[in-house]
DNA sequence: ATAGGGTTAG
C-alpha cells in the first residue's frame, strides 16, 4: 500500500515539496508542522553537494522531524544502509517513540549485532524491560547473530527475574566476555537489584580489573540492599586503592550517612565534593540535601539547594520533604509554591510530601483535593506508596472512615497498607477495630507481617488490656527475631506494663538495647502508672548515668509518675531540670502534670498560681487537673472558678461535668448538682461512652455502661445484686454524685450498679476460679463510687482486683487500694 | 551505528 504525501508549502518549503512515495504508516506526517519541515530543510540544505544525513540526524529534535528524515531515507534508498537505519532505531528511542524505533528496526532486512543492541537498548531506555528481554530471546533463537559485550550491559539492566539473569550469566561465561569491565559491573548490578548481594559481591571479587564503574556498582549494591556498613567498607577500600571519587560514587555513598546517623561523615564527603568541584552535579547536590535533611540539619540542606545552578524535580521534592520531615509545614509549602512557579509539575513523591504535610498540620480541608488530584491522574491505581500515604493522611486527620474507603479502593495492598489502617484505628481510639483489621490481615495470603505490623497492633492490645493476645504477638515477635528490636521491644514493654505485668515489662526492658530514650520512657511510664514514683525517679537517674538523653516524653512520664505517687518536690525538681539542663520547653502535657502534681498534693493555691504563670494558654486538661484537685480537697470556690475557665475552652467533655457535680455534692449543694445535670443535658453532650474490658480465655469482652446484651447478662446482674447487699451490710453507701442523670434514688443506685467497670468485674468473678486475680480495663477514669465499691468487693470475694483506668493502675486487695485513695 | 555504576517516599 502506497500513500502519497505532499508536504505543505511554506515560504521556503517549496523546494522540498516534492512528491514522496511512502508506506501507509507515514500517514501521521500530515501533522508535520511548517517549523519541523523548515528544520529538516535547513539540515538538508546545509550540505549542498549531497544529503549529509549525519547533520540531519543531529538536527532531529522531535519525532516529527525524525519521521520526515525517515521518509527521505526510504525515498532516497538510503534506508537499506544498515548504518543509517540503525541510527534511526536509536534516534526514535531517544525521542521516546518506541513503536517507530521498532518499525525502523523491523525494516532492516539483515540485522547485525549493532542493530539488535540498539533495539534492546532502545527498549531499556524507554523502560520497556519486558520487550527488551523478549527481543534478546529473539536474538538468541532466530537471528543467528551472537550477542556481544555491548548486548549484556543493556539487557542485564532489563532483567527482573533471577532465572533470566542466571541464563544471561551463563551465556556471558560461554562467550568468555565476563571479564569485560562493563559486563562485570552490569552483573554486579543485576544481582544486587534482584536482592542477591552475595552473588554481586562474588562477581566483584572475581574481577581482575576494576574501574570506577566497578567500584560504584559494588557500593550501590550494598547501599540499595540496606547494608550501609558494608557499603562504607567498600568505599574506604576504594579510597585506599587510590581511586578518585566521581559524582556517581558520591551520590551512591551519601545516602548511607543518615541510617548510620553519621553527620560527620556526610560533612567530610561534602568537603570532598567542594574541593573537587563535584557540587555542580545535580545528583550530588540532591543527595547532599537529603543527607542533611534526614540528619536534621536544615540550614546546610537549604544552602546546598540555594546554590544549585540547575535544579530538577528531585531537588524540589527533596527540599520540600526536608522541611516537611522536620515539621516545618509552612516552609515546605512555600517551596512547593516556588516549585510550581518554576514550571515543575508535582509527581508522586511530591504528593507523598503534600499528604504528610496536610496530616501533620491537621488541615482537613486540603485532604480531599490532594486525594482527588491523585485519582484524576490515575496514580492511585498504579502506586501503592501513594495509596498508603492517603490512608495514613486520613487516619492522622481522624477521618478513619475515609481511610478505610481509600484502603478498600486500592487495587493492590501491601503490608504497609495494612499497617497504616491498623495504626489508624488504634490511634483513633478504636482498638477493637484495629484488632479486627489485624485478624483480617492474618487471613490474607501474601501479606507477611513486619516490624511495623507489630508496632501498630501492640498499642491496640495494650489499650484494651488484651494480655493473652499480646503474649501471642510477643511469641510472634520472637519467631520473627524482632522481640529485641527497640521499637517492638518498647511496645512490648508498654503492653506488659499496661496489662498489669510490670515484672515482665522490667525483664524485657533489661534485654532490649537502651541507647535511645524510647524504651526508658516506656518503663518509666510503666512504674508511674503502677504508682511507683520513687522507682521511676531511680530509673531516670540510671538513664542519665548511662548517658541516654531524655526527651520531652521522658519528662511527661516522669512528672506523671511523681504526681501519681505524690512526690511534689521531686516533680518540681524534674520540671526545672528539664528546662535548665536539657533545654526542653514544657508543653501542655508537662503543665498539666505539674498542675495535677501540686493540686492533688493539696497545694491548690500554688497550683492555680502555676497556671497563672504559664507562658502558653492553658487547655482543658490543665484546668481539668485543677478541677480534679479541688474535688479531692473539697475547695468549692476554686473549683467553681476552674470549672468556669474549663468550660470556656471545652464544654463538650462530660467527664468534667461529673467532676463538677461531685464538687457540689461534697458540700451538700444539691441544687448545684441538679444545675450541672441540666447543663449537661442542655448541651446535648457528645459524651465518650464509658467501657470496661476483661480478658478471659483469650477473649476480650467489652462492657458498656448499662449494657444488657452480654450472653451472661443475667448472671452478671444477679452477682452484682448479691454483692450490693453484702457491701451495704459492711457499710457501703452509694455516692450518687457520680450519677449525672436526673432520676430517682433507686434508679441512681441501679445506674451505679450498671457501670461498665462493675459489669466487667462481676463477669470476671463468675468466669474464673476462686482466688484468681481479676484484671479490668476502663477507658475513662474509674468512677469514684465504683472505686469504693471495688474495695468492698475485693474484701467480700477475697480476690485481688486490678483496675487500669485511663490514668493509672489500682490494685485492690483486702478492702484497700494501692493508690491509697490518692488519685 | 551499540555498553555498566547515581539522588527523593508510605
TrEMBL record:
Question: Could you tell me which InterPro entries the record lists for this protein?
Answer: DYW_dom (IPR032867), E_motif (IPR046848), PPR_At4g14850-like_plant (IPR046960), PPR_rpt (IPR002885), TPR-like_helical_dom_sf (IPR011990)
PPR repeat positions in this chain?
Answer: 112-147, 180-210, 211-245, 281-311, 312-346, 414-444, 516-550
Where the record annotates domain DYW, the positions are: 731-823
Give the superkingdom in one word: Eukaryota
Which keywords belong to this entry? Answer: Repeat
UniProt record, GO biological process? RNA modification
Q: Name one GO molecular function term.
A: zinc ion binding
Signal peptide range equals none
User: Which SUPFAM superfamilies does this one have?
Assistant: TPR-like
> Which NCBIfam families does the entry link to?
PPR
In its UniProt entry, what is this protein called?
DYW domain-containing protein
